[in-house]
Every structure is written in C-alpha cells, then in structure tokens.
Amino acid sequence: MAGAAGPGTGPGAASGDGDDSLYPIAVLIDELRNEDVQLRLNSIKKLSTIALALGVERTRTELLPFLTDTIYDEDEVLLALAEQLGNFTGLVGGPDFAHCLLPPLESLATVEETVVRDKAVESLRQISQEHTPVALEAHFVPLVKRLASGDWFTSRTSACGLFSVCYPRASNAVKAEIRQHFRSLCSDDTPMNLLKDCEAEVRAAAAHKVKELCENLPIEGRETIIMNQVLPYIKELVSDTNQHVKSALASVIMGLSTILGKENTIEHLLPLFLAQLKDECPEVRLNIISNLDCVNEVIGIRQLSQSLLPAIVELAEDAKWRVRLAIIEYMPLLAGQLGMEFFDEKLNSLCMAWLVDHVYAIREAATNNLMKLVQKFGTEWAQNTIVPKVLVMANDPNYLHRMTTLFCINVLSEACGQEITTKQMLPIVLKMAGDQVANVRFNVAKSLQKIGPILDTDALQEEVKPVLQKLGQDEDIDVKYFAQEAISVLALA
Predict the structure, then answer these.
(1) What confidence tens digit (pLDDT) does each residue in 240-252 have?
(2) Do domains 35-186 and 378-493 have the same CATH topology?
(3) I want to staple 476 with a disulfide (CB 3.0 to 4.6 A). Which of 90, 320, 349, 438 is the partner?
(4) What would the DSSP string read from start to end of 306-326?
C-alpha cells in the first residue's frame, strides 16, 4: 500500500532528488490513483493533516494546484473534497489567502453530479464570507461571472447559488454587472427536464413542484402545455420505482384537477388517482386520501364516489394502521360531502368497525370521529344510528372494547346533550361500575366525572353519587383515586 511507504521509498524519492519533504504530495498522488475507491476517499478525508504537514505556503503552491488538476474522481470522493475545502481557510494562511481555494471549488461546481455541485456551492458561500470586499471583487465575483456564462448548464446552475453572497458586498458598478448575469440566467433556455432525472432525489423534488409550476404557467395556453408537456411525465412518475418520488407526486397531483377542469380530470387524472390509491407504498395512498377534497370541488361527490369510493373502502381495512388512520381523519369531510343517506349506506359500518380495531390509536381516532359525525348529522341521527351500536359494546367479552364504549360516551355526551346522555348513556355507565376489570371500573369513574356537568342535579345525587361512593371504597387503588377525584370535582361529598 502506498500509505505504508516510508521516506525515501515513495514516488517522490524515485525522482532521485532525495527531498523527503515531497513525500506527502507523492503519497497523495499514489493513493488517488489507486483503484480502491475507499482508499481514495480516505486520502481526501485526511487532506487537513497533509496540509498541516506541508505548511501554508506549500499547501497553496503544491496541494491546491494538484487538487484542481485532479478533479476526475468518483462522486463520493469529489463530495468529500468539496466539503473539506470549505474549512480550509486556516490551512492556506487565513482570510488573506482564501482566494487560493476558489480554483478547485470552481471546478467542483461544474461537475455533473448534483450533490457534488451543491456541496461545492455551499463551501464557496462559506469562503465568500472570509473575503474582504476588495478581495471579493478581485477574485470571487469573477468566479461567479465565469460560472454564470459557462457553456454547460452545470456551471450556470451553480452560479445561481452564489449571487446572493457577493451582491450585497459589491460596489454599485459590480452590482450592475451581477444583475446583468442574473437577468441572463432568468431567461436561460436550457431545459432541465428534471422529472426524468436519473437521481430519484431530483425527481422527487421536481415532482413536488409540479402543481406550483402549472399554476404559474401563462393562463393562455396553460391547459395545452400541461396536457402535452407535463402530463406524460406525470404518468410515468405514478409508477416510478422510488417511493419518495411517488409520494411527492401524490401530495400535489390532486391539485391539478382545479387547473385542468372536470373533463380532463375524469379522463386523464382519475385513472392516476386510482393507481396511486392502490400503490404498495402507504405514504402514497395517504397523500392521495388527504387531498380528495380538491377533486370533489371539480367533479362532484357522485363521480368521485363511483370512481374512488371502492378504493377508499378497501383502504379502510388496510393492514397498515397509519393508512386506516388517514381514512378516519378524512371521514368527517367525506361524510359531509356524501350526505347522511349515502354515508349510512356505504361507510357507517366502517366507522363502527374501527371502534374495535386492535390498534389503540385507531380506536381513539374512531371515537373522536363519531363526535364529529354527530356534529354534522345531528343528535337525532346519533340517537337512532350511533348510540345504540356503541352501547351494545358494553357487553363485549373484550374489556378493551368495553372501555371504548366509555370513551365514546365521553365524547358523544357533549354532542348529544342532556336527554340522550341521561336516558340512554348513563344507565350503561352505571352498570359498568360492577365490571370485573379494574381498568374498566376506574374509567367508569372518569366517565362519570366527564358527563356529570351535563346531567341534572337529581341524576347526580340519586344515581351517580352512590356509585362513585362505592367505587371510592374499591379494593383497587386506581379505582379509589379516580372515584374520589370525581366526587370532589362534581362536589358530591
């Protein structure tokens, strides 16, 4: 290995000059020519050590020119080099010599790989702050001008990230030149077709901007541009191999319906929505579900339900609980759009099934969902449709489901009012005070505390107080605590 060589045995010694001080550069050359990428990467990562050994003058006159002329390596190595150089100012003699770092970073800012260019720009921005205003105009601004007028889009792209750090500190004359270059880049006609970039990260970032791009196209001819030039790429991204790309697209694609209108949405976008609703990636499905209201505004709930409702019902029973959770959170809005009759026919049973889901987060969300549904459809609907089904669960063999009954009563009582709470819910809560499971009993105490303010004085004194007093003597310490707390809060002592 080159790193194992000693003074007088490395490539520098082979020249016959006998100057061991050339050894660090010689070793670096040897390592950077090695076929092992990891070895080359390691040698770049120890550049600061080599620079310290060389001293500031030789770092400026030997190491940096060598690095500038040797930028042809693997992207991983170049990325490490771009990062290292951003912290090199002290190793070249301080701010007075910071401009010596610009040549290698300028070369790195023109390479094809995006992450390398971005890191080079980041380091250049960092080094720009170490230039005096005079040095900035003498060295940094010319670099920006060269990048901005480069033949390849890579250099012009990098220039865009450097205008902001040099413009505020430049003289008025130089500011005018910078503005001119900026103006030229604003009208640059080089297409980036980023939606087909070979890097998934780039495609994901571009996909996330699709709606924003379409919204900012000229209104005249916008629909034609989207249909002919954007939609074909969107159709490809729907089946992209990378889940982050598909997820990014799913978060914005629904918004295109308001731009393209009803006919285009039904003919061209609905098939894409359906495909994404069935995507194997939960994040993709979740993003589509969360934005259904955009489509409803354009095509109407009947068309939406015929096309998408079967997929929604399927997702409501998805094996992944986060997908089920997303459906639950969307349900009140969907219910309001569908109407009571349609909701009861198609989705009511799903809402009740979620109450006995094996995941607590789903049961909790389903409970809150019921309260929102009652607020939409009214107390009569609750009394006839929801409350009877909830109260039946009080006899369920699974104590978790019995506790869910109590949780539902807690949230439904406020929405349903005094009469329904007193006549239908209270008797069930009082009966559950004799449950064999302590967790159920102390939740009874908590429920009585919750619904107590809704009840009239007679019900509190004659029905609630005796039960809480009995629970206050329970053998379980938690049951006693919550019962006594309820007595205190309700002033029943």
Answers:
(1) 888 888 998 888 8
(2) yes
(3) 438
(4) HHHHHHHHHHHT-SSHHHHHH
